[in-house]
């Protein structure tokens, strides 16, 4: 199930909210746990058992990781936990990739390829595996005590607002909230506002942009003219931002409705002035996770210059591979690792001297270059796409699948992305805004409803495909 | 801000989210349905297999969304935005509607055919004609008539209202299947009505519209002209004297009726903004004639047949009729029943023997599909089954 569906918006959400508000505090976590399991099982009815079993295992092993236990045992149990959690991720997400690569090598040596039935990727596994690691490592390091019971731990992993697309919530950020949290009406109101903004970003902006991006990236790349290639790339750059940040907004908003405060996941990433700045603004929860649980344990900046560059590269190769099991994602990780290393080599003082009018568009265009690797299926296709951007192929054509609506949204998208730089004083409209003036809350409430109704209308129309007469 | 506002706002939020479901259960607010038909989803069956392979979830979600309260309003709001801002009707992946000049609507499929340069092969067309000629001969042996009615496309009769960006330049330099097959129908002496040519002539002679702005089919006025021609043609073939109707004039108003707005209905916008334009309604009456026979008819065709059967039934021009719609579903008149055709169980010879004439209706764009698969099995059935005894051949 996804948030941007009528099933969630009109059935699961009102049902869960009503039950959640109706029951005493002691039962609230139960309501959320059951709702979250239904939410997940709806789309992954088989894997929910694997998820449940692994949570039970994590919980009981997690209790053996407390600092009072013998060091050797703690380490051993942590290694066991990490192996089976990463093993699950490896099997479900990467087995197909490795078998495919292995068979290519076998082909070279004329060895019979391995017979293999493709594994179906369970939704959200990349996100909740990292959350599980966060819990186990946090407990191992002694940053937090183990969860007080299995229900609270399972809820931390499967809590539906952040289950399938993040933000990646570190255990120490929500450990207290799992035990006790307030539910002020103001927080619920802010949750509604944030959820509506996220829904609108996803349904009203990202989905129409996807029509353009899917059309261009789905077209034969060898015949793609430079105009269409640039339009498609810009559409995709805006689509992925509004899609992902919209989903994060919905997650944060839903969290607030249920009394949770999740950390921000996006902060106007396309206003970044360099790659380091970009990764402080884009998928912040992933950056935090990678820094805390991989970069720093590898030595971070405390090691020599060359080693630090290597660590950075390694982190971004892992990050790329985490995004998807293909060479394109690995190269995308290397691409970002290269520019981050370059930032480090140039140094922050010299980077700061580059004028904003130059740094911002250059960073944006280079990030867009990365999106080519991210969106294309293969490296060969990516190469052809770069050639199309450079004008190597056909004449400009305006395909008929680009609708006026999606064209308008593409025209407005830069305004949504960079406009806040200009009107940043009106920060009350920004997702993180904290307005308190008398007229502002009712106005935002009205806007939230308008956005929700327009989004629901777009969702309803998307699932309405009438024929003139019944001819089947 | 007052805390009470936040409390009431959040309570209202939850209550409003419940409304579509409450409306679904109670139908408290009267809702107008959506135009068009959708592929029906089977009722979800909750079994272990269905749950684990995701079938139940898909079917449940699909059915629930189709039945959720205020769905019509939500769809109309979104369509209205597309229509008002972009003059672009959105009708999903079903029948696609294109808005032309002066609010004339066209079905995308017809515009595609208008632009298409693909032609059926000459030998295939001749093979079709040979089969039709053979069918005609077999029917004649059984005293039955056969009439092919080629219906016109709105895009061909009123191309001037099509959006220019949807028309491929130089289209008139190419031949169409209609232009290729019309001479063959004459060559093989198949009795047929050339309605596209008739409409082009009518358009030159009269300002009375033959199609309505919002319809994909002929309007009731122009269809009534064709009905008269059908009856005349059947009379000539069978030598019988059939009941007729007369058009005493037309009434013009702005109320679209039935198929006159079938594309307009698909727009599913907030209706008060839709300009349907003047609508022409024929004033028809059956001709009183006690000696006139009312034939039994079998139609095989597409949705153009619905207008014919409606006019013929309301003016009592047949005693009963069956329509094989795309040769997939059958409609019975005057019973008004509808059912899918079970081809294995269908006794075509018996079906044909109980009527006086077979009318094969086909749009000019789909001429190579004439009969929609009916002709071959009909030939086989008639060749294998002897004609009922005592049936005289019809005179032509």
Task: Explain what you see.
The complex is a heterodimer of chains A (472) and B (396). By secondary structure, chain A is mostly helical. Among the domains of chain A are: 6-181, no CATH class; 187-273 and 354-414, no CATH class. Chain A contains 19 helices and no strands. Chain A has helices at residues 6-22, 25-43, 47-62, 71-108, 125-141, 150-158, 160-163, 171-179, 185-218, 226-257, 275-281, 284-295, 305-323, 327-346, 348-353, 356-375, 379-389, 404-422, 440-462. Chain A is globular. Helix content of chain B is 41%, strand content 15%. Chain B contains 14 helices and eleven strands. Chain B has helices spanning 3-26, 48-52, 55-67, 71-86, 108-115, 122-141, 154-157, 177-187, 195-205, 220-238, 262-267, 304-314, 348-353, 375-384, and strands spanning 97-99, 105-107, 145-151, 192-194, 245-253, 279-286, 296-301, 320-325, 329-333, 337-340, 357-363. In chain B, helix 6 packs parallel to helix 14. The longest helix of chain B is centred in the N-terminal third of the chain and has 24 residues, at 3-26. Chain B is globular, with a radius of gyration of 25 Å. The interface between A and B is large, with 52 and 58 residues.
Considering the chains and any ligands shown, give keywords for the structure:
heterodimer, A: 472 residues, mainly alpha, 19 helices, 70% helix, globular, B: 396 residues, alpha/beta, 7-stranded mixed beta sheet, two-stranded antiparallel ribbon, 14 helices, 41% helix, 15% strand
């Amino acid at each position: 199930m996804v948030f941007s569906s009528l099933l969630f918006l009109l059935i699961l959400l009102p049902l869960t909210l009503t039950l959640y508000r109706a029951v005493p505090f002691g039962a609230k976590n139960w309501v959320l746990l059951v709702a979250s399991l239904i939410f997940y099982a709806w789309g992954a009815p088989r894997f929910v058992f694997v998820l449940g079993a692994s949570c039970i295992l994590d919980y009981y092993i997690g209790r053996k990781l407390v600092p009072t236990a013998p060091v050797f045992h703690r380490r051993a149990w942590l290694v066991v936990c990490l192996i089976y959690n990463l093993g699950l991720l490896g099997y479900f997400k990467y087995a197909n990739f490795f078998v495919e690569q292995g068979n290519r090598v076998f082909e070279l040596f004329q060895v019979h390829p391995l017979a293999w039935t493709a594994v179906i990727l369970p939704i959200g596994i990349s996100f909740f595996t990292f959350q599980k690691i966060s819990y186990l490592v946090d407990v191992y390091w002694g940053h937090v005590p183990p969860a007080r019971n299995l229900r609270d731990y399972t809820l931390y992993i499967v809590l539906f607002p952040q289950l399938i697309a993040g933000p990646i919530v570190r255990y120490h950020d929500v450990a207290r909230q799992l035990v006790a949290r307030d539910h002020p009406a103001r927080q619920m109101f802010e949750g509604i506002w944030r959820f509506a903004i996220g829904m609108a970003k996803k349904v009203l902006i990202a989905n129409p942009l996807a029509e353009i991006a899917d059309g261009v990236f789905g077209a034969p790349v060898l015949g793609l003219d430079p105009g269409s290639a640039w339009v498609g790339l810009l559409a995709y750059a805006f689509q992925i931002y509004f899609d992902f940040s919209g989903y994060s907004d919905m997650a944060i908003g839903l969290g607030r409705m249920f009394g949770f405060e999740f950390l921000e996941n996006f902060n106007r990433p396309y206003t970044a002035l360099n790659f380091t700045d970009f990764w402080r603004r884009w998928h912040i929860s992933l950056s935090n996770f990678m820094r805390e649980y991989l970069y720093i344990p590898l030595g971070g900046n405390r090691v020599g210059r060359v080693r630090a560059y290597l660590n950075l590269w390694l982190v971004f190769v892992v990050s790329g591979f985490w995004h998807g099991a293909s060479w394109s994602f690995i190269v995308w990780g290397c691409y970002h690792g290269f520019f981050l290393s370059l930032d480090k080599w140039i140094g922050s003082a010299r980077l700061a001297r580059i004028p904003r009018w130059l740094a911002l568009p250059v960073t944006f265009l280079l990030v867009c270059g990365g999106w080519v690797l991210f969106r294309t299926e293969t490296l060969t296709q990516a190469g052809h796409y770069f050639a199309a951007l450079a004008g190597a192929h056909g004449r400009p054509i305006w395909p008929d699948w680009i609708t006026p609506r999606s064209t308008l949204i593409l025209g407005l998208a830069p305004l949504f992305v960079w406009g806040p730089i200009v009107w940043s004083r009106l920060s009350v409209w920004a997702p993180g805004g904290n307005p308190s003036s008398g007229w502002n809350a009712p106005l935002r409430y009205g806007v939230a409803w308008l956005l929700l109704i327009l989004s629901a209308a777009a969702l309803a129309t998307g699932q309405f495909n009438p024929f003139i007469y019944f001819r089947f | 801000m007052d805390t009470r506002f936040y409390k009431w706002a959040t309570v209202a939020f939850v209550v409003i989210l419940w409304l579509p479901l409450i409306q679904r259960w109670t139908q408290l607010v009267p809702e107008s349905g959506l135009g068009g038909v959708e592929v029906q989803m089977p009722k979800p069956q909750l079994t272990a297999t269905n749950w684990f392979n995701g079938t139940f979830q898909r079917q449940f979600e699909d059915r629930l969304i189709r039945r959720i309260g205020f769905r019509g309003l939500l769809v109309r709001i979104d369509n209205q935005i597309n229509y008002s801002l972009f003059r672009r009707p959105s009708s999903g992946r079903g029948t696609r509607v294109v808005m032309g000049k002066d609010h004339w609507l066209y079905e995308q499929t017809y515009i595609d055919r208008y632009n298409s340069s693909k032609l059926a092969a000459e030998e295939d067309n001749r093979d079709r004609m040979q089969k039709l000629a053979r069918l005609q001969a077999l029917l004649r042996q059984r005293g039955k008539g056969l009439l092919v009615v080629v219906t016109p496309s709105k895009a061909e009769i009123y191309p001037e209202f099509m959006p220019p960006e949807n028309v491929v330049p130089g289209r008139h330099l190419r031949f169409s299947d209609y232009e290729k097959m019309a001479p063959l129908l004459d060559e093989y002496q198949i009795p047929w009505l050339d309605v596209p040519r008739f409409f082009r002539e009518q358009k030159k002679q009269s300002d009375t519209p033959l199609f309505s702005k919002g319809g994909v089919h002929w309007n009731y006025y122009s269809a009534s002209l064709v009905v008269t021609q059908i009856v005349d043609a059947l009379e000539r073939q069978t030598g019988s004297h059939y009941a007729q109707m007369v058009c005493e004039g037309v009434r013009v108003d702005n109320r679209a009726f039935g198929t006159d707005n079938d594309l307009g209905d698909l727009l599913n916008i907030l209706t008060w903004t839709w300009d349907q334009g003047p609508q022409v309604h024929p004033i028809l009456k059956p001709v009183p004639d006690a000696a006139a026979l009312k034939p039994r008819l079998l139609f095989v065709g597409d949705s153009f047949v619905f207008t014919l059967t409606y006019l013929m039934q309301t003016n009592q021009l047949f005693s009963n009729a069956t329509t094989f719609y795309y040769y997939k579903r059958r409609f019975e008149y005057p019973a008004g029943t509808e059912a899918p055709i079970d081809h294995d169980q269908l006794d075509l010879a018996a079906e044909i023997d109980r009527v006086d004439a077979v009318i094969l209706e086909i749009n000019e764009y789909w001429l190579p599909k004439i009969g929609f698969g009916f002709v071959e099995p009909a030939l086989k059935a008639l060749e294998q089954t002897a004609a009922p005894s005592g049936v005289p051949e019809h005179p032509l």
